[in-house]
C-alpha cells in the first residue's frame, strides 16, 4: 500500500484530506516527524491555516521537505500547501516559502469578494498532467483562499490549469514529481476524489 | 465562473436534526449523518451544522458527530453553536470541519474573530449574525442604520443565544466590524423570517452586500424556489442556506439548482 504522510502544522482540518486519500487507497499518517517523512512514498502539504503561522510550523522541517523533493519524492501541495511551495508570500507581511516554484503569493484583486469561496471552474492547459487524467475541462472544484500564486515568467510551463476570479491564476501546477492545487480536492466531491486517485496512481507508477 | 452555492442547514440538538419556527417549536427532522449523505448526493455545495442549544446550555459542540460527518462527506461543511475559544475552534477543525461559525461569542468578545482568523485563516471563520427588524416611525435620528423596507422604516437588531436575547446592536455596523476583524463569510439569519417560508429578508441582504466585501450566506425564510432565486439575485447573496424545504422533501437540492440554472444563475450541476 502507498504510504502518504500528511504534514501536520497543528492547525485546521487534516481529517478530510486523510479520509480522501484513504478512500482512494492510500495508507495515511498525519505527522511532522522526520523519520516518518523520510520513509513515506509521498508527502501532502495540506491546505489549512494562514501563511505566517504555517511557515512558522514548517520552518524546522523546511530542509527536510526540500531534501525529500530533491531526492525525487512525490509531493502534493493543497491550497496553502501549494502556496508554501512558492518563493514568498505577502500574506501578513513578507514570508519566505520553500521556493520550489518561482513566484510570489499575492492577494486577489479588490474588485471581487475576498475570500474566493466556493465552486469554480478550471481551464486545463496541460491535458498530460498526471493528476488531471479523466478530469474534464470546465470541471467545478472547491476553492477557499484570499491569495494566489503570481507565477514568475520562467515558471509558466509549470501551469497545468487556470481559474478565473477577478484575475486568472494557476489552479494546478506541477514540476518534476511535485504537484499542487489551489482548490481542495478532498472537498471537491467526485472530481476531487478522481484527482487524489490520480495522485496515488502516479506514486505507484 | 464562480457558482452560487446552495447549502442545506442542519440544526442539531442532542445528536438529531431539528427544525422549528422562529427558533422555537422544534420538531425532529432526522439523523444528521444520513441527511448529510443524502444532500451531498443531491448536489449540495456545502453543509452547515448548527448545534442550536450549545450556547444557551453552555456545553461543547458535538465532536463525535463532526467526526462521523467528516468520514462520509467530501464537500465542505461548517459547524457552529457554542464556540467560545481558539481551543474550541481547533477541536472542531481537527474533527474534520472546514469552517466554524461564531455567533454569541463573537458579539461578546469581538477579538475572538481577530485571533481566530490570524491562527486559522479568515477563510474558515464564518461570523453568524441573527437579526430582527426594529421598526421606527420614520427616518428619525437614532444611532442606528435605518433603512426603508416594504413595511416601513427599520433597523436590524443583533440577537444572541440562539435568537433569545436582543443586544441593541446595529446589525449592519456589526457586520462591517466583524469583516474588519477577520470574518471570512457572514451567515445572516432573520428572526422575522426564520421558518415562515415567506422568503428571505431581501432588504437586509441588499444592505449587507453593499457594505461588506466578503461572501454573504442568506439564511432563513426559504419556502419556494423563487425565494432562493431572489436572495441570490435581488439580495445579491453568494449562497443560500435552507433547512425545512429540504428536510421535509418539498424540493431536492438538485431541483433548486436546476431552477436557478434556468433563470441564469451560475450553479454547479
What does this structure look like?
- The complex is a heterodimer of chains A (205) and B (269).
- Helices cover 25% and strands 35% of the residues of chain A.
- Chain A has 205 residues and is α/β, with parallel strands linked by helices.
- Chain A has one domain: Class I glutamine amidotransferase (GATase) domain (Rossmann fold).
- In chain A, the strands form 3 sheets. In chain A, strands 2-1-3-4-14-13-12-9 form an 8-stranded mixed beta sheet.
- In chain A, β5 and β6 form a beta hairpin.
- The radius of gyration of chain A is 15 Å and the shape is globular.
- Chain A starts with a strand and ends with a helix.
- By secondary structure, chain B is of the alpha/beta class.
- Chain B has one domain: TIM Barrel (Alpha-Beta Barrel), CATH 3.20.20.
- Chain B is 34% helix and 29% strand.
- In chain B, a hairpin with a 2-residue loop joins β1 and β2.
- Chain B is globular, with a radius of gyration of 17 Å.
- The interface between A and B is large, with 40 and 36 residues.
Number of domains of chain A: 1
Query: Strand share of the residues of chain B?
Result: 25-35%
Sheet of most strands of chain A: 8 strands, mixed
Helical fraction of chain A equals: 25-40%
Q: What gyration radius of chain B follows from the Cα positions, in whole Å?
A: 17 Å
Write down the CATH topology of chain B: TIM Barrel
**How many β-strand runs of chain A?**
14
Give the key terms.
heterodimer, A: 205 residues, alpha/beta, Rossmann fold, 8-stranded mixed β-sheet, 4-stranded mixed β-sheet, 6 helices, 14 strands, 25% helix, B: 269 residues, TIM Barrel, 8-stranded parallel β-barrel, 11 helices, globular
Question: Nutshell version of this structure?
Answer:
The complex is a heterodimer of chains A (205) and B (269). Chain A contains six helices and 14 strands.
Amino acid at each position: 500500500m502507498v504510504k502518504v504522510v500528511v504534514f501536520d502544522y497543528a492547525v485546521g482540518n487534516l481529517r478530510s484530506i486523510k479520509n480522501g486519500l484513504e478512500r482512494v487507497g492510500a495508507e495515511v499518517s498525519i505527522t511532522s516527524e522526520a523519520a516518518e517523512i523520510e520513509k513515506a512514498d509521498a508527502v501532502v502539504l495540506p491546505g489549512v491555516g494562514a501563511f505566517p503561522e504555517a511557515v512558522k510550523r514548517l520552518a524546522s522541517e523546511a530542509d527536510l521537505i526540500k531534501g525529500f523533493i530533491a531526492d525525487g519524492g512525490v509531493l502534493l501541495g493543497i491550497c496553502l500547501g501549494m502556496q508554501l511551495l512558492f518563493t514568498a508570500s505577502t500574506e501578513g507581511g513578507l514570508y519566505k516559502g520553500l521556493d520550489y516554484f518561482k513566484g510570489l503569493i499575492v492577494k486577489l484583486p479588490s474588485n471581487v469578494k475576498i475570500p474566493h469561496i466556493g465552486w469554480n471552474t478550471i481551464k486545463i492547459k496541460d491535458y498530460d498532467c498526471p493528476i488531471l487524467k479523466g478530469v474534464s475541462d470546465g470541471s467545478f472544484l472547491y476553492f477557499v483562499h484570499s491569495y494566489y500564486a503570481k507565477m514568475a515568467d520562467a515558471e509558466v510551463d509549470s501551469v497545468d490549469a487556470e481559474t478565473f476570479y477577478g484575475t486568472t491564476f494557476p489552479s494546478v501546477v506541477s514540476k518534476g514529481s511535485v504537484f499542487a492545487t489551489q482548490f481542495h480536492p478532498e472537498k471537491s466531491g467526485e472530481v476531487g476524489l478522481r484527482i487524489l486517485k490520480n495522485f496515488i496512481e502516479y506514486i505507484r507508477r | 465562473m464562480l457558482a452560487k452555492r446552495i447549502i442545506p442547514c442542519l440544526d442539531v440538538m442532542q445528536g438529531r436534526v431539528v427544525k422549528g419556527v422562529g427558533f422555537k417549536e422544534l420538531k425532529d427532522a432526522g439523523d444528521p449523518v444520513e441527511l448529510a449523505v443524502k444532500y451531498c448526493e443531491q448536489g449540495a455545495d456545502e453543509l452547515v451544522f448548527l448545534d442550536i442549544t450549545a450556547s444557551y446550555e453552555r456545553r461543547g459542540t458535538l465532536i463525535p458527530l463532526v467526526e462521523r460527518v467528516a468520514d462520509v462527506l467530501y464537500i465542505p461543511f461548517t459547524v457552529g453553536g457554542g464556540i467560545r475559544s481558539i481551543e474550541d475552534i481547533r477541536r472542531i477543525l481537527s474533527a474534520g470541519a472546514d469552517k466554524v461559525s461564531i455567533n454569541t461569542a463573537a458579539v461578546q468578545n469581538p477579538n475572538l474573530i481577530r485571533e481566530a482568523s490570524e491562527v486559522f485563516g479568515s477563510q474558515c471563520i464564518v461570523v453568524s449574525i441573527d437579526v430582527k427588524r426594529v421598526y421606527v416611525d420614520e427616518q428619525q435620528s437614532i444611532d442606528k442604520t435605518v433603512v426603508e423596507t416594504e413595511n416601513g422604516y427599520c433597523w436590524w437588531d443583533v440577537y444572541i443565544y440562539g435568537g433569545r436575547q436582543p443586544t441593541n446592536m446595529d446589525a449592519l455596523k456589526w457586520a462591517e466590524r466583524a469583516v474588519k476583524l477577520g470574518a471570512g463569510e457572514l451567515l445572516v439569519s432573520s428572526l422575522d423570517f426564520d421558518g415562515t417560508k415567506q422568503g428571505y429578508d431581501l432588504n437586509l441582504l441588499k444592505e449587507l452586500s453593499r457594505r461588506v466585501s466578503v461572501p454573504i450566506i442568506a439564511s432563513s425564510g426559504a419556502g419556494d424556489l423563487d425565494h432562493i432565486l431572489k436572495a441570490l439575485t435581488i439580495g445579491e447573496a453568494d449562497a443560500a442556506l435552507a433547512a425545512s424545504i429540504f428536510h421535509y422533501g418539498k424540493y431536492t437540492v438538485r431541483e433548486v439548482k436546476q431552477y436557478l440554472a434556468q433563470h441564469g444563475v451560475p450553479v454547479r450541476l
